[in-house]
Write a structure and sequence with these properties.
Layout: H1 2-25, H2 33-60, H3 74-105, H4 121-150, E1 159-166, E2 169-174, E3 208-209, E4 216-220, E5 225-231, E6 236-240, E7 245-249, E8 255-259, H5 265-269, H6 272-287, E9 297-301, E10 313-319, H7 321-330, H8 334-337
Parallel strand pairs: 1-5, 4-10
Antiparallel strand pairs: 1-2, 2-3, 5-8, 6-7, 6-9, 9-10
């Protein structure tokens, strides 16, 4: 492998010298008016092609975009994305036109001379102040949204869940009746205690752990959920794309964020945008002879954490509060699971 790397470097250096030699050979070539005219027209054709590709991507590639945010807090993420996307789109559209049109209009012609234009303080102020103001507004909105997700001090009766990451699996533990999670540390991992929960902590015994056999995390609609993240081994990243939430899971420390689910899983499946996207996905899967796909919320790892990183995910089901209470009441406590007295 090392020898192959050296060969690649040698080839790259050789190609670089060859390209430099070609460029030096062009120093004596003088473009004619016909060459400049051809290049100018090609610029216009390329501009038309670029606009066509932009429109195609906006329309045809929309199927790969995420549907509406499934959390109330995520609405601001979508707003920030849309505002930024529209601003960038307008600037992109206008600037590309100016660049390619001027390249055509001021293409080289015999006898033409460049016009010297002295600096304009007014223009410089406009193109300096305008982007600065826009960036301040966007960054300010982003910081406000970050605090909205991270500041959990005013949450009323939140559901507290610990999400535990390890190569290549997620586990979840719900706070018990006291709504307080017991302490956790990798030193306590033993047998069925795969999350390293300190069972000597009185707050641990009534906690409830999601089954490792069928790992599904249930969330109640309309109730604030506070997630606390730990990692057993390497850096992972808990990513819940439909809720617009992501947080690194760092070995040796606890990180957190919170959001409030807005739609149940069934409600999300019935949204027209999700129905359309699901139909598009199933059309592709059917052509490959694969089983049909049904929409589900998922927890993914968004850090390349090893060979099986791609399969590190957990299904999330959002239900009404009454259905969640029924499911939660059926789950055994850690004290019962580990037979702790």
């Amino acid at each position: 492998m090392l020898a192959l790397f050296y060969i690649f470097i040698a080839v790259a250096i050789g190609v670089s010298f060859w390209q430099i030699t070609r460029i030096l050979n062009f120093r004596t070539v003088i473009a004619t008016d016909k060459d400049n005219d051809t290049q100018g027209k090609l610029f216009l054709w390329f501009l038309a092609f670029l606009y066509a590709m932009m429109i195609y991507c906006l329309i045809a590639m929309n199927v790969i975009m995420l549907p509406e945010s499934a959390s109330f807090e995520g609405e601001h993420d979508d707003n920030l994305f849309n505002i930024t996307f529209i601003l960038i789109g307008i600037v992109q559209f206008v600037m590309q036109f100016l660049l390619f049109y001027f390249s055509f209009k001021y293409r080289g012609k015999k006898g033409n001379k460049a016009l010297f234009y002295a600096d304009s303080h007014k223009l410089e102020a406009i193109w300096t102040i305008t982007p600065a103001v826009v960036l301040v507004v966007l960054i300010g909105y982003g910081l406000w949204q970050w605090n909205n997700i991270m500041d959990l001090s005013d949450a009323e009766d939140p559901l507290i869940i610990e999400v535990y990451s390890k190569q290549f699996q997620w586990e979840a533990r719900y706070a018990g009746a006291d709504n307080t999670l017991g302490r956790g540390n990798v030193n306590f991992i033993k047998g069925a205690n795969t999350m390293g929960v300190d069972m000597s902590d009185v707050n641990s015994k009534d906690d409830k752990k999601v089954s490792s056999i069928d790992p599904v995390m249930y969330l109640p609609k309309g109730r604030k959920v506070i997630f606390k993240f730990r990692s057993q081994d390497v850096l992972h990243s808990a990513y819940m794309p439909h809720f617009r939430a992501q947080m690194n899971c760092v070995p040796g420390m606890v990180t957190e964020f919170g959001f409030t689910p807005k739609f149940t899983t069934e409600e999300m499946r019935q949204q027209s945008e999700v129905v359309e996207k699901t139909a598009g996905i199933n059309k592709i899967r059917a052509a490959k002879g694969e089983e049909p796909y049904e929409f589900d919320y998922v927890l993914l790892c968004n850090k390349i954490c090893g060979a099986s990183h791609y399969g590190m995910q957990m299904k999330i089901v959002v239900v009404e509060q009454a259905e969640f209470d029924k499911w939660y009441g059926e789950q055994p406590t850690l004290g019962e699971q580990l037979a702790v007295k």
